[in-house]
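FAQ: What does a multi-protein file look like?

Like this. Sequence, then tokens, then the next protein.
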Amino acid sequence: MPVEPEMTDSPRPSESSEAPAPTFDDLQLPPALRRAVAALGFERPSPIQAQAIPSLLDGRDVIGVAQTGTGKTAAFGLPLLAAVDASERSVQALVLAPTRELAMQVADAIGSFASASEGLEVVPVYGGSPYHPQERALSRGAQVVVGTPGRVMDHIRRGSLRLDGIRYAVLDEADEMLRMGFAEDVEEILSHSPATKQTALFSATMPPAIQKVAAEHMNDPVRVTVARQSSTVSSVTQRYAVVPFRHKTGALARVLATSDAQAAIVFVRTRSAAEEVGAELISRGLVAATISGDVPQKERERIVERLRDGSLQVLVATDVAARGLDVDRIGLVVNFDVPGEPEAYVHRIGRTGRAGRSGEALTFVAPHERRKLRAIEKTTRQELEEIQIPSPRDVSRHRLRKLLGEVPARAEAGRLDLALSLVDEFLESSEMDARTLAAVLGAMSVGDSGPQAAEEEEFRGASLKGSDRDRGDRHDRGDRRDRGERPSPGHPEKGYTTYRIGVGHSHGAKPPAIVGTITGEGGLNGKDVGKIDIFGSFSLVQVRGSLSGDQLDRVGRAKIAGRTLRISEDRGPRTSGPRSGAGEGQRSRYDAKRDRRGGKPFHGGRDEGARPYHRGHRHD
């Protein structure tokens, strides 16, 4: 399904009220493009489109300074298509984008604009996908290529892409490309193209490096700037909450539990944090997935499609992995970590409230990070509202109100004879009144099991620890002699089955990734995963009950750190000789079940060279 192009169908508040806002018919687009725009249901261009399209149609080079979500794709995509000859089967236009996701989005949008132009082909090229399908598409005579700098360079070197005949070049999100280290690639790519080409450069900021590129590769460019008030920031309700690091995960779970958004994106700084936060959310019963730079492209595409079709509630992502992601269902963005730069904040919250839609953004701020908050407010020219994180009681109230809202429809549906008879029997044999019974059933149905559970839930907020300052005093961990005798690796608890998977320490396997993969692919709840033993080249995982053949197949084909899990049931110690892998010298133990209850994971001894896994500690 093509991604919806970034357009608006009404004038922005910042536009002058003295003259009527232009329509796309006023922009002198070719008839085929006007038909395509009309078919998409848009009438009025956004400010960046109204300013950039006329200059580009006149053949001028353009520098567009605008934030993400303001309609940049149509601003350069429509004039690009106007400059392309569909009857000529060669590459005539090139668009460079910093990430695979953005390249795919731009290619889809330009392809939707080109739907009324017979014979015009748009081909995306990006890393993480095989070369040969892209080479075949290029050999068929594509006129427009949209790609990431690295893959475009690869195709140039392989001879599958020639740029000596291009008429039009676009650098989209140029500041991000340079920040990611693509400066040399961009320079070399442009050196393979004619000096007479028309060039459009779009960037959220104009640092010296971008100004240098413009000076060297652009001819007397027209500068178009969209004020910050006209960007997506104005359509997003922005709030913050002061949350100590050790309480972030619990706070996040409660925010998501009380949100009415269809889907949410949670931004973290690092790939390891994405895995840990994603696994925590899954263990708490949320339908979540993680996406970062090391996730294979096919898996990334599958995750994004799940987000679009409604089968995924929460996406935990790093900044680079989420570039170019535009999904209508995203109504909430949570900055689990405050972004390092204010501009990154704008890009993050631009994943919601895009082009006419509204959204919410919440940023977790540690007590010492208030200065970063002030920098964000200065950049966005908006003051963020401070809120309090929902309590466990707030979560129960939200869930119960939602449940009560469904009562009339369920009552009207009927077939309550069995429930009524059992309720009558219970009331006759109990001193409880009907009102109390209804309250108890409601509390049980939303997972509220009493005051002690609320206290445990509050404690669980401290379960994700990522630095020495948050690990607590050494005395809190208890003396090793008091922890009891260490059980044999993989010895299952009652009701659990031990499975062996083909990833271990040597492959970079971590408990959060293992929990998230097994629950996500196996269709399990986080509560179904028990103890995990990680050895050098394999791991043992205890799962409640047993996995079906279909579950084993799905989990077995999944990958962690690029390695297939190859899951199989573990048959226990052999009758003679050491257990396979037991002497590999490195083993970590993690008890997912105990960790979810707020208890400390089991820390194995250091005999046999074992290294205990403390949740949140880094293994190097």
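And here is the next protein:
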Amino acid sequence: MAFIKNLFDKNFIEYASYVIRDRAIPDLEDGLKPVQRRIMHTLFNIDDGRMHKVASVVGDCMKFHPHGDASIGAALVVLANKEIFIQRQGNFGNLYTGDTASASRYIECCVHPLAKKFLYNPNITEYVPSYDGRSKEPVAFRAKIPVVLLGGAEGIAVGMSTKILPYNIKEVLDAEIKALRGEPFEIYPDSPTGGLMDVSNYNDGNGKIITRAKFDLSDEKKIVITELPLETTSKDLLDSIDAAYKAGKIKISSVEDFTTDHCNIEIKLPRGVYSKDVEKALYAYTSCEKSIACQMLVIKDNMPVAMTATEIIKYYAKKLTGIIKDELEFERGSLTEELHQRTLERIFIEERIYKSIEQMKTAESVNKAVKDGFVPFKDELIRDVTDEDVEKLLKIPIRRISLFDINKNRDQVKAINERLKEIARRLKHLTDCAVEYLDGILDELKKFSALDPKQDHTAISPALLERQTKITSFSAVDVKQIVQRDTPLRYDEKGYLGTSVNGGREILKVTPFDRILIVRKSGLWSVCDVPDKLFVDSGIWFCNYADKDIISKILFTIIYRDPKTKYCFIKRCRISGWIMNRDYNFVPDGMEVLHVDTRAKFKFSLNYTKKPRVKITVQEFKAQDFEEKGLKTNGIRLESKEVDSIKVEDSGLQTKLDL
């Protein structure tokens, strides 16, 4: 058993780690989940400036992603609809209507130039073997901007989940620039579908937001929905409106959906109903208002970490300077090597070192002759001559040697030296370089947004550069406050109480959110939610809304009799609290309740058992003559006489339901 337990523990931990790190939670380094990273890696590999069938891209991506084509295709469509990662051609679905994309064999895509600019830098990216060992894939791209905020993310792993809302790219880049300069900034989510958003409880990415649709109420007989809430489509909205209408929660005449590349849902109202009457009901009962809980959980240094949007922006600002430094140092190394090769080539040809190898018989002697030929020029060299350098020099064709242009070589060397000086300068001003880079990205965005999407597939929507969702402040609509008490609560002769009881007597008008207090014929009382159909008793004394402020003010008078002695007692008390769906008793066990009343003052008469020495057979009492006691105390005995019956003065008591 111990072996099996250890085996299960080990396998579960491995499974949980895999799901968390390699499936559901995005990596902070590039903001992508593994399937998204592999899609982008595939597009970078096959990029030739032309469109590729999505089905072909999916097939190529399966060389890196071992989980089937469906997940790849779906993730590719989501990435493509972000516009800044993938160029699209064909039907990739509609964010407003919720229509899905065409089959992958009918649509085409290729990598967007912007994605290559902020994601692709293979010279400083770490690669590992793919799952079958035939290829290499990146551990994570060295992203220069907070991709995890631009695209948003949602995933459920083992014991944890993430929910990151999308942000506006221009606002993210502006915030990153401010972070580089040490300036304060605030940033909030944005949705391409627009709508309204209350971020008072957002907590920088780890709280919740309330999002609403935007209404046009200019016509009091019509409501036009012009913008959608976050993560909602027109189809979702129509379904929720239809459900609310069928449930009788909203009053509408008809709904027409004219949504295309923007939301346009027209709701017509029936006679006597106006837009101001329906507005709150739409927010309360339909998807026109949603509350979304958020948690920014990401993989950082191979561990799941909860971060805030501000922390992510600052992390990327610091990371950007590091990436630029790595790129500059790599370029400096490459240019230094190229300068070395240019110098070797010039000396090798200009000083005719190649002549010294004409009489050599072996490869070793040739190698030595070339190296010896460079000894007099050692001070001009950047580093020592290696065997690899000799091999490259020996591969120079005779035609190139004979046509060697010394002036061209010197110009190339001069250009390299100037660039090396520029790199040295930029390495001393990395923050300025980072700001310059981000400004360049903003300029690129403006350029792509100005293009015609019908003529150029690199065009992006101008809406990406402007905030679409309006930040405002509002309170979520409380359904309990706007619901109307129009559902009848009935009680029939069989003892059933509820909203689904047919026939019987209507007691109250209720809502589904009401609670009711019931006093049964036996003296038992309880509080419960409004029932559909509940057997309570063959008779009840009292039934009303269980509002503590109201109930605590009601003075209950209970007159009961001991079946053994037939003595009568009176008890006056109030109900101040209760536990839901629990039975309580006004009177001690075994007692017989004769009457329950809620009037502060009333008269009642007791009819005593007729006996030879009993002269008074009827005696009248006033309820107000007896003091109020605690709910758990016993009643006060009225007289030491046996009681046959009771007669109560009737003054139109509305809460007595002796059916």
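Q: Is there any per-entry metadata?
A: Some entries carry free-text notes. For the entry above: The chain has four domains: 32-142, 196-293, 309-447, 484-648.
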